[in-house]
Every structure is written in C-alpha cells, then in structure tokens.
Design brief:
This protein is mostly helical and about 100 residues long. Helix content is about 60%, strand content about 0%.
Length: about 100
C-alpha cells in the first residue's frame, strides 16, 4: 500500500498498467524496441525508470512522462530517507521555538 514513507516502485505501477491494458511485458518491450528482461527488471523493482524510458512508456501506454518520473522520484527519495533514518514528518515540524 502506498504511503509517503512507502511509495510504490514505478515498476509496480507499470505492472498494474500492463495488467489493466492486457499488454504483456514482451509486447511492451517489442513496442519500445528493447529486450523483455529490461521491462521485467523494471516491473520487479530491480531497475528504475530513466527520463528516456519514461517518455517511451508514456507514448506506448497513453500516459505522461511526468507520471513515471514522479513515481521514480518518490521512490528514490523514500529510499534515501530510509537510509538516512528520516521520515517525511521530520520536515514538517514547526521550526518556531
């Protein structure tokens, strides 16, 4: 389940789209001109989505590149915050003394 502290990997979102649209990972890979393992690695969270891939996926699925880049940014930021021992609420505390 998505929360600000635990956003979905963009691959989970891609997997959902592919299932809803009844498109196989192989079919998407063919449409994008890449090898199926690349799409599988994204769908399984082993690979992120680059800006170039975001444009290609958006064109293929009728979405926007921003959807994919925002998902990737949220994921990356959440992972970095976990590594740093931070939570989103740490940045919303009142600074007034």
């Amino acid at each position: 389940m998505w929360t600000p502290q635990n956003p979905s990997h963009p691959g989970e979102i891609l997997k959902f789209y592919l299932e809803e649209l009844a498109i196989s990972q192989s079919a998407l890979a063919e449409k994008l001109g890449c090898k199926p393992p690349k799409i599988n690695e994204i769908c399984t969270g082993k690979r992120g989505i680059t800006a170039e891939m975001a444009i290609q996926i958006a064109d293929a699925l009728g979405t926007t590149p921003q959807l994919w880049m925002n998902a990737q940014m949220n994921w990356d930021l959440a992972q970095a915050m976990k590594k740093a021992g931070k939570k989103p609420a740490d940045y919303y505390k009142s600074k007034a003394g």
